[in-house]
């Protein structure tokens, strides 16, 4: 058995000796029935699968293939085990159920080993294979459940999630949900045995062999199995029925009584610590009495570990904390809370949970709700330390940089503060001091901090504070809710203290000339949130209850540890200033508004003006506006007797601020206008807005229209505001002002600076807005004013066509383009307006006219084109789009016709004129009209040799237009024919134009695939369709020959794939070659193949550099094989029909002359062999010769020449197959062995000799025979000469020792003698080489030229 370290020979697929032995043992009834083989896994148990004792017919129980696979499962190499378990799963899926059942006695032991394999891939694959086994055997698994279930439970808790998920899936496949508890109950003792042994008995060295498994791998497996076992205990408790859990309490008590179990809580591995706390939580939940018995160890193990902030440990740890404080009533007696628990808690809170606030802090309120008085006394100090530490956590590095962390901290702070106040509502001095401390030292400072911190402002803090205030109002009786147990006065006092402190806090920020804008914004945000409680989300926090006396007093429910949800309902917003019933909020807002007015009036403070605007957005009440106007009325009756305070505030304050000169930022003032309008009627709204628009006429033009623009934008921002301002928007005051603005902007004879200056941008934007903005498909302004504005724009563009100073008017035209483009793009059915159609027609005419007449720049023309495209798109998308007399499409078509027929457009304008119809694919009635005009124009130019560029440009436009017009196939065919005629005129062609044409054809490939006739039955295709495809082939051939470098990689793919698909179509339609159009299709396809072969055979280096780098490789590796696998059998298919077309045969023959020798040597022709034919050739070459040699005598000269060229390519390879020749002694001549040239060729040569003898029988040497062309005799003689030509090539390629043997064969067969005899009879009377002129010095004869020339002369002799 030596050679242990030898390498197996490459390619040796024979199994090793041990494998062969096992295979033989499985096949033959071996002497050890049931033996599978020894494994390498070192375990205390034997490394083989034992036989079933007492079973005589063991082969019927375990299939031989299963034996081999089971043996591989015990291999040491992980990859081998992985492949084996995958193979096992496949076999379970494929084999019969009875065969698979034979494996069941051995499966539990194997499963228990590989389900805890070190390689996680093996563990996952094991569960997948187990699933296939379960699905196949079903109920037959029942006797083996107890031996499987322990490790099955471990697998379901695998630390590798895919493996655990697969194990759970197997469990669900084996047992329906209703049967799962029953299955676990049946095996509960066995499961717990496995889990308990792993936790208490096993070590890294007992689970794995120290001699064969590395220490690192042993330790990793041990840690993984301990973790899985802990999680398995939890899973077992959660799935077992309560009665079974009670039955297991004695066993579980033994587990948790072990000291090793409690050491897992301090293990260095986070996964084990986390799993330990999960098990402890499960024990508290399902078997609380056991934990209570071990309280002395459980409480310190959990409560003194709260500083463990490992991300894996912290979530289960805090779940265990809440379970411990709920399950063990006297938990504080088992720990030193003053020295151990609380200091760790304070430190953890001060550090913001060490980056785990989102997980840790939601547990704080349930925790403090269960802390007994023995821990919290003195309460004031406890709450002070708790909240100070909690809020200090906001300064931790993680909380500062993470919005989610800071949000978790402030949420916990507000919830705990709210809970603490609710549980300290008694009248005693101690609890009053606690309430004061929580408000003044915790809540208000936290609000102060948030006002300057955008991160806290954007978080949930303000919402939570508002929700808490609403809760206090409820308990104070302000919302009619009585459930505060006589504590209304306490909560009223709380509200007073809070608002008093908050007001002082706000005043400190506002009453300052150098006020911080961020702080002012924070104040406004807090006040806004206070009245926007309708946006509060319903919050659900999982806590436990101690008492259910009311909705908001929360604690922890003892006993079972149930965790109901605490849902805080969203409160409906109140009228006036919001959900808060108290007037304190309104008092605060009024005081802030007064302070703002003081600083605005006395200090011109823009910061306070902006702050006032922010306040009024949320607080628009009569009282606030009255205060802002400096008249503070105490009663509503007094306010109603006077004018509307909001109107007075607008007229006397806001309008004055708007009209101030030099003011640039007016957004906040416009917002102030609309805040005030909330308190105004619709008539008052119209009056105010008209007044503002009138007053602004005395202001700077740009500022005036900028403010009007902002007002209109704000008025149309939401449906409610639009409804209240709709009458003003459609009114005459605004309409006349906008019409005057349009007149001023479009004044060509005035100063251009007014309408085209950068400052006039607001004016043009305003015009664009009122034209384009629509609501419920109605214009924003009055329709009559909209039409007048469009007419003004149209008139302005019409005037520009006659102006010569286009340079000055370009900015004006550009602005009009912007307005028109937005209008056409935004407004549906905009072209139903006559003025809009006229505007679009004028834009189109400016686009299409000669640039030398319009004097417009390229950039402006490009913008005009985009406007035109937008307008046509809008037109054709209308469902009632049609060509009507006087409409845009009809007028444009007539204008194009006149311009084309009068030749007043330049080349570029001609193309641009056509482009406008590319989008009009729904207006099909234009097609015939436009095409007639274009073809007339093309015909007119096609006869002019100096105007190829015109024809070329129009042809390109036509080819593009066909895509969109959906014209019929004949029109497209005509277009391509004219296009190709233009391209062949030797005129310069731009690469972009060729790219555009090819892109058009590629678009046809996607949208008009039937035009390409791929895989079509050509007998059912019209002549026009065939001609269209032919024209495409001709264009591609021209492209390959003349401009190959313009093609991109994708375009080359299109060309080559189309060529190959057409060849497949031609091969499938040989029976339809009676149709001359099909013949033309095949001929053009082969012509394209010839052009491609010529191109790829010898491209220049300059061309190669510009081609895609992978193109040549793709042609050689893929397309050559595809082409000639289809082309090589084609001549034989064509000649199956007696009436075959010679033109097609000749075209195919020319294409076949480019076939590479490799394709011929490895051809895929149908095998053709002749009985008793002696040959040394490979099968492909022998088939080629047997197929092509008979064609040398076929009565079709193109086919004879094609067969000759193909055979001539392989002749040099044939002598190699004869090796050293024939070394045997011949009977006739023992000294000189002979060897026959290729048998198929000699067979044809013999047949030709007989025919030639009969043809030339009456001709004597010295005479010459006359052979009629294309006769049978002609074909025979030509085939005879071609066969000899091939023989000469064969001889030339033969080595000298073979050449002697071949010559001797020809000598003995008298073939050479017959050749000379026939040549002298066929030789012409004058053997002068044809084609010589009189100036030739030396006369060339057939005897002075090369054999090739001789062959050609002989072929052309007759």
Automatic annotation (TrEMBL):
Domain of life of the native organism: Eukaryota
Segments passing through the bilayer: none
Compositional bias ranges of the Basic residues kind: 1-11
Catalyzed chemical reaction(s): S-ubiquitinyl-[E2 ubiquitin-conjugating enzyme]-L-cysteine + [acceptor protein]-L-lysine = [E2 ubiquitin-conjugating enzyme]-L-cysteine + N(6)-ubiquitinyl-[acceptor protein]-L-lysine
Keyword Chaperone appears in the UniProt entry: no
The protein's annotated pathway: Protein modification; protein ubiquitination
A Gene Ontology biological process term: rescue of stalled ribosome
Any single Gene Ontology cellular-component annotation: cytosol
Annotated ranges, domain E3 ubiquitin-protein ligase listerin HEAT repeat region: 1181-1336
Region of interest (Disordered), ranges: 1-20
Keywords in alphabetical order: Metal-binding, Transferase, Ubl conjugation pathway, Zinc, Zinc-finger
Domain (E3 ubiquitin-protein ligase listerin HEAT-repeats region): residue spans on this chain: 983-1129
Its EC number(s): 2.3.2.27
Name of one Pfam family that matches: Ltn1_1st
Gene3D superfamilies documented for this protein: Leucine-rich Repeat Variant
InterPro entries linked to this entry: ARM-like, ARM-type_fold, LTN1/Rkr1, LTN1_E3_ligase_6th, LTN1_HEAT_5th, Ltn1_N
Assembly and interaction partners: Component of the ribosome quality control complex (RQC).
Family: Belongs to the LTN1 family.
Protein name, as recorded: E3 ubiquitin-protein ligase listerin
Organism, scientific name: Myripristis murdjan (pinecone soldierfish)
């Amino acid at each position: 058995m030596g050679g242990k370290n030898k390498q197996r020979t490459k390619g040796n697929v024979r199994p090793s000796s041990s494998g062969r032995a096992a295979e033989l043992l499985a096949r033959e009834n071996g002497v050890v029935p049931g033996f599978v083989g020894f494994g390498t896994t070192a375990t205390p148990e034997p490394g083989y699968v034992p036989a079933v004792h007492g079973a005589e017919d063991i082969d019927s129980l375990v299939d031989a293939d299963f034996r081999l696979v089971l043996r591989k499962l015990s291999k040491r190499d992980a990859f081998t085990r992985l492949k084996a378990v995958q193979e096992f799963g496949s076999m379970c899926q494929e084999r019969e159920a009875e065969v698979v059942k034979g494996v069941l006695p051995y499966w539990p032991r194997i499963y228990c080993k590989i389900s805890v394999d070190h390689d996680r891939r093996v563990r996952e694959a094991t569960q997948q294979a187990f699933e296939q086994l379960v699905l196949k055997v079903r109920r037959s698994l029942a006797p083996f459940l107890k031996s499987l279930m322990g490790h099955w439970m471990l697998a379901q808790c695998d630390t590798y999630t895919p493996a655990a998920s697969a194990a759970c899936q197997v469990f669900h496949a084996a047992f329906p949900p209703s049967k799962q508890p029953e299955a676990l109950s049946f095996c509960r003792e066995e499961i717990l045995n496995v889990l308990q042994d792993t936790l208490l008995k096993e070590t890294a060295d007992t689970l794995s062999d120290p001699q064969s498994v590395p220490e690192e791998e042993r330790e990793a497996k041990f840690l993984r199995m301990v973790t899985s076992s802990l999680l398995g205990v939890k899973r077992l408790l959660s799935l077992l029925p309560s009665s079974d859990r009670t039955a297991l309490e004695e066993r579980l008590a033994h587990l948790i009584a072990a000291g090793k179990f409690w050491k897992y809580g301090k293990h260095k591995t986070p996964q084990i610590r986390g799993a330990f706390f999960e098990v402890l939580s499960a024990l508290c939940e399902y078997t609380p009495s056991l934990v209570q018995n071990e309280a002395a160890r459980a409480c310190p193990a959990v409560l003194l570990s709260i500083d463990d902030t490992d991300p894996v440990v912290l979530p289960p740890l805090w779940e265990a904390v809440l379970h411990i404080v709920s399950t063990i009533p006297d938990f504080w007696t088992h720990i030193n809370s003053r020295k151990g628990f609380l200091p760790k808690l304070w430190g953890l809170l001060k550090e913001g949970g060490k980056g785990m606030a989102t997980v840790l802090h939601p547990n704080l309120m349930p925790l403090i709700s269960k802390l007994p008085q023995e821990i919290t006394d003195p309460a004031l100090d406890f709450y002070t330390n708790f909240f100070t530490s909690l809020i200090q956590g906001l300064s931790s590095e993680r909380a500062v940089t993470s919005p989610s962390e800071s949000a978790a901290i402030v949420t916990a702070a507000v919830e705990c503060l709210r809970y603490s106040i609710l549980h300290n509502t008694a009248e005693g001095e101690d609890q009053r001091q606690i309430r004061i401390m929580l408000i003044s030292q915790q809540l208000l400072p936290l609000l102060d901090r948030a006002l300057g911190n955008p991160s806290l402002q954007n978080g949930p803090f303000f919402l939570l504070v508002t929700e808490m205030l609403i809760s206090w109002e409820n308990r104070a009786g302000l919302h009619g809710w009585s459930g505060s147990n006589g504590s209304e006065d306490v909560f009223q006092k709380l509200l007073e203290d809070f608002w008093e402190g908050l007001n002082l806090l706000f005043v400190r920020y506002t009453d300052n000339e150098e006020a911080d804008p961020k702080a002012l914004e924070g104040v406004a945000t807090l006040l806004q949130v206070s009245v926007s409680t309708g946006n509060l989300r319903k919050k659900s926090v999982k806590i436990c209850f101690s008492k259910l006396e009311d909705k908001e007093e929360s604690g922890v429910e003892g006993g079972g540890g149930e965790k109901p949800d605490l849902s805080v309902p969203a409160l409906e917003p109140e009228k006036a200033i919001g959900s808060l019933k108290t007037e304190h909020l309104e008092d605060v807002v009024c005081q802030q508004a007064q302070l703002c007015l003081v600083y605005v009036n006395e200090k011109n403070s823009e910061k306070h003006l902006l702050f006032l605007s922010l306040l009024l957005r949320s607080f628009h009440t009569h009282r606030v506006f009255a205060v802002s106007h400096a008249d503070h009325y105490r009663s509503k009756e007094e306010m109603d007797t006077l004018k509307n305070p909001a109107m007075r505030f607008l007229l006397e304050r806001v309008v004055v601020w708007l009209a101030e000169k030099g003011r640039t930022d007016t957004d906040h003032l416009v917002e102030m206008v609309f805040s005030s309008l909330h308190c105004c009627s619709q008539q008052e709204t119209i009056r105010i807005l008209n007044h503002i628009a009138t007053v602004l006429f005395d202001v700077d033009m740009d500022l005036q229209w900028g403010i009007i623009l902002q007002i209109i934008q704000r008025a149309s921002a939401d449906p409610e505001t639009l409804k209240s301002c709709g009458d003003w928007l459609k009114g005459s005051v605004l309409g006349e002002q906008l019409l005057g603005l349009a007149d001023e902007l479009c004044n060509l004879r005035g100063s251009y600076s007014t309408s085209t200056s950068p400052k006039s941008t607001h004016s043009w934007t305003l015009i664009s807005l009122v034209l384009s903005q629509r609501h419920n498909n109605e214009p924003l302004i009055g329709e009559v004013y909209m039409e007048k504005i469009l007419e003004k724009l149209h008139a302005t563009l019409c005037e520009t066509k006659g102006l010569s100073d286009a340079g000055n008017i370009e900015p004006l035209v550009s602005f009009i383009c912007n307005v028109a483009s937005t209008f056409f793009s935004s407004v549906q059915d905009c072209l139903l307006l006559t003025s809009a159609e006229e505007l679009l027609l004028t834009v189109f005419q400016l686009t299409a006219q000669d640039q030398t007449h319009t004097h417009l720049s390229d950039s402006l023309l490009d913008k005009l084109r985009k406007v035109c495209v937008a307008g046509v798109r809008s037109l054709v998308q209308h469902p009632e789009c049609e060509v009507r007399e006087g409409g845009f499409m009809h007028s444009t078509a007539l204008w194009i016709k006149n311009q084309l027929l009068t030749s007043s457009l330049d080349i570029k304008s001609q193309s641009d004129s056509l482009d406008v119809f590319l989008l009009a694919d729904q207006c099909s009635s234009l097609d015939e009209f436009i095409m007639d005009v274009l073809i007339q124009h093309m015909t007119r130019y096609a006869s002019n040799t100096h105007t190829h560029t015109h024809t070329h440009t129009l042809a390109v436009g036509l080819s593009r237009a066909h895509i969109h017009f959906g014209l019929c196939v004949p029109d497209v065919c005509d277009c391509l024919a004219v296009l190709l005629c233009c391209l062949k005129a030797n005129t310069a062609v731009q690469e972009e134009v060729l790219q555009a044409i090819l892109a058009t054809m590629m678009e046809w490939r996607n949208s008009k695939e039937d035009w390409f006739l791929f895989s079509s039955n050509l007998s059912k295709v019209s002549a026009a369709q065939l001609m269209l495809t032919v024209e495409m082939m001709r264009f591609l051939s021209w492209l390959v020959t003349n401009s190959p470098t313009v093609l991109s990689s994708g375009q080359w793919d299109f060309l080559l794939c189309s060529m190959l698909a057409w060849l497949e179509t031609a091969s499938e339609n040989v029976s339809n070659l009676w149709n001359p159009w099909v013949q033309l299709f095949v001929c053009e396809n082969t012509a394209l193949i010839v052009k491609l072969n010529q191109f790829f055979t010898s491209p220049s280096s300059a061309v190669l550099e510009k081609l895609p780098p992978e193109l040549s490789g793709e042609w050689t590796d893929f397309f050559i094989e595809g082409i000639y696998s289809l082309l090589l059998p084609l001549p034989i298919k064509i000649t199956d029909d007696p009436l075959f077309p010679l033109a097609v045969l000749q075209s195919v023959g020319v294409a076949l002359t480019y076939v590479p020798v490799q394709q011929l040597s490895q051809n895929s022709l149908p095998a053709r062999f002749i009985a008793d034919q002696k040959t040394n050739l490979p099968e492909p070459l022998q088939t080629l010769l047997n197929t092509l040699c008979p064609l040398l005598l076929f009565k079709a000269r193109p086919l004879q020449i094609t067969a000759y060229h193909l055979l001539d390519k392989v002749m040099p390879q044939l002598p190699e197959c004869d090796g050293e020749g024939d070394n045997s002694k011949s009977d006739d001549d023992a000294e000189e062995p002979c060897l026959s040239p290729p048998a198929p060729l000699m067979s044809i040569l013999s047949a030709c000799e007989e025919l030639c003898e009969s043809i030339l029988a009456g001709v004597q040497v010295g005479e010459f025979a006359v052979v009629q062309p294309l006769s049978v005799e002609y074909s025979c003689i030509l085939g005879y000469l071609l066969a000899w030509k091939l023989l000469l090539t064969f001889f030339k390629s033969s080595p000298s020792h073979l050449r002697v043997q071949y010559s001797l064969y020809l000598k003995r067969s008298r073939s050479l003698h017959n050749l000379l005899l026939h040549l002298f009879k066929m030789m012409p009377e004058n053997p002068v080489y044809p084609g010589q002129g009189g100036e030739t010095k030396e006369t060339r004869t057939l005897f002075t030229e090369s054999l090739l020339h001789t062959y050609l002369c002989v072929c052309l002799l007759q």
